[in-house]
Design a protein that fits this description.
Strand content: 15-25%
Bound molecules: calcium ion
Order of helices and strands: EHEHEHEHEHEEEEHEHHEE
Oligomer: single chain
Helix content: 40-55%
CATH class of the largest domain: Alpha Beta
Largest sheet: 5 strands, parallel
CATH topology of the largest domain: Rossmann fold
Number of helices: 8
Structural class: alpha/beta
Number of strands: 12
CATH superfamily of the largest domain: Response regulator
Distance between the termini: 29 Å
Radius of gyration: 18 Å
Number of domains: 2
Strand order of the largest sheet: 2-1-3-4-5
Length: about 220
């Protein structure tokens, strides 16, 4: 999952990015409203965490203009002012949820998970064939076997499980699992997909991750 954080306080932005990266999310950061809106309209993010008080353009205006442009990415607004007026204004401008600063990081994570679940129709578990990824405990199993995944492998498997039976190009994978520092000239995606295959496919008779030659990969059951 790829998240955009729009926050002008560098310390807060850094703290959020670091914490989310530790949970396997790919994170881009923008430090003002104009840059944030630009990134939000040119990349396919899964969630946007948007501060209200921002230089150049405030968070209310950013989310309103994104919605006008039919960009429906879930938005979690952050604010230093915990007033009913701000909450109402935020939700009316098209934000999906609201968090007041200062917040405990655990609460931010819970809100992020809740917004992602809303997209998944409320499922805490992602399943495909005999693979289960429990998003609350972050545990992957195939049949009875518990599979230990690194952060990137987890992010990759999560993206595959959210898009079964669909050809995923390397560009799509890069956009959802890596952040904007990703260098598309490398074979890093193939390397990580191979790591993941070694863990979830290699020792099992039925393979589920298949190469689509010249394009990318697909998660599907063999006929
Ligand atoms: Ca701010």
């Amino acid at each position: 999952m790829r998240i955009l954080v729009v926050e002008d306080e560098k310390k807060v932005a850094g703290f959020i990015k670091k914490g989310l990266a530790e949970e396997s999310y790919a994170v881009d950061v923008a430090y003002d409203g104009v840059e944030g809106e630009y990134l939000a309209s040119t990349n396919d993010y899964d969630i946007i965490i948007l501060d209200i008080m921002l230089p150049k353009k405030n968070g209310f205006d950013v989310v309103r203009d994104l919605r006008v442009r039919e960009i429906k990415t879930p938005v979690l607004l952050l604010t230093a002012r915990d007033t009913v007026e701000d909450k109402v204004k935020g939700l009316d401008s098209g934000a999906d949820d609201y968090l007041s600063k200062p917040f405990a990081f655990e609460e931010l994570l819970a809100r992020v998970r809740a917004l992602l679940r809303r997209k998944d129709y409320g499922l805490a578990e992602l399943k495909f064939a005999d693979i289960i990824l429990d998003q609350s405990t972050r545990k992957a199993t195939r049949g009875d076997v518990v599979i230990d995944l690194t952060l990137k492998e987890y992010g990759l498997l999560e993206y595959f499980l959210r898009n079964p039976n669909k050809v995923l190009t390397r560009t799509m994978i890069a956009e959802h699992v890596w952040d904007y520092t990703f260098d598309s000239d490398t074979n890093v995606i193939d390397v990580y997909v191979n790591h993941l295959r070694n863990k979830i496919d290699k020792d099992f008779p039925k393979k589920i991750i298949h190469t689509v030659r010249g394009i990318g990969y697909i998660l599907k059951e063999e006929e």
